[in-house]
Amino acid sequence: MADETTPEAARETRETTSATPPLSRAEAALIAARVYALVRACPAGRVTTYGWLGAAVGYPHGARMVGWIMNESPRWASVPAQRVINAKGELTGSWAFGQRGRMRQLLEQEGIVFTEAGRVNMKRYGWDPMRDLDAATRQRILDAATPTDAEVSDHLLHLLLDDPASPFHLARKDITDAE
């Protein structure tokens, strides 16, 4: 049975009709807040991936969703977004840091050394919250996040509901098909 505070539980408790989207703005904000909380838990000098974060918040195929959320991470909320990279050790979000090379600089200041190919050695620096946090600690971090810790723009909500790569897209398609 799903925990009452999860977006899944919220969806289970309401009737799903064509007028009810599979994800509300508040549920999206809770997911984003949980992603941000895990990013804050990632230690300096370590990196995590979009996929690892997705799995840790309950969406094992949610890497792209986490990317969209990180693209909107609030700079004021001290989210160390530089610590989130792709599974290959590449700095895919570096354009979001205002200048070319800034993301790499921030990681190097934390002690991360890049390979000649410009990648991070994931075996050495990778931090997977599902592996590196015990279940109780991880759950405490997730439970401490609240929807007020994140804002969800219309653009982000649109991606979450309508992009084919979103874990919520199929749920919306199933609702439409059922009509």
Care to describe what's here?
- The protein is mainly alpha-helical.
- It has one domain: Orthogonal Bundle (Arc Repressor Mutant, subunit A), CATH 1.10.10.
- The protein is 47% helix and 2% strand.
- It has helices spanning 7-12, 25-41, 50-56, 63-71, 102-109, 122-125, 129-132, 135-144, 154-162, 169-178, and strands spanning 48-49, 84-85.
- It has a two-stranded parallel sheet with strand order 1-2.
- Helix 2 (25-41) crosses helix 8 and helix 3 (50-56) crosses helix 4.
- The longest helix is centred in the first third of the chain and has 17 residues, at 25-41.
- The relative contact order is 0.20.
- The model is unreliable at 10-18 and 175-179 (pLDDT under 50).
Record keyword descriptors for this entry:
two-stranded parallel ribbon; disordered C terminus; single chain; 179 residues; Arc Repressor Mutant, subunit A; mainly alpha; globular
Write the layout of secondary structure elements.
Blueprint: H1 7-12, H2 25-41, E1 48-49, H3 50-56, H4 63-71, E2 84-85, H5 102-109, H6 122-125, H7 129-132, H8 135-144, H9 154-162, H10 169-178
Parallel strand pairs: 1-2
Assembly type: single chain
Number of separate helices = 10
Rg on CA atoms, Å: 17 Å
Distance from N terminus to C terminus (CA atoms, Å) equals: 27 Å
CATH fold naming? Arc Repressor Mutant, subunit A
User: What's the structural domain tally?
Assistant: 1
What fraction of residues sit in β-strands? Answer: under 5%
CATH class: Mainly Alpha
Mean pLDDT reading = 85
- Binned, the helix content reads 40-55%
Described by the principal axes of the CA atoms, the overall outline is: globular
- Please give the number of β-strands: 2
Secondary-structure class: mainly alpha
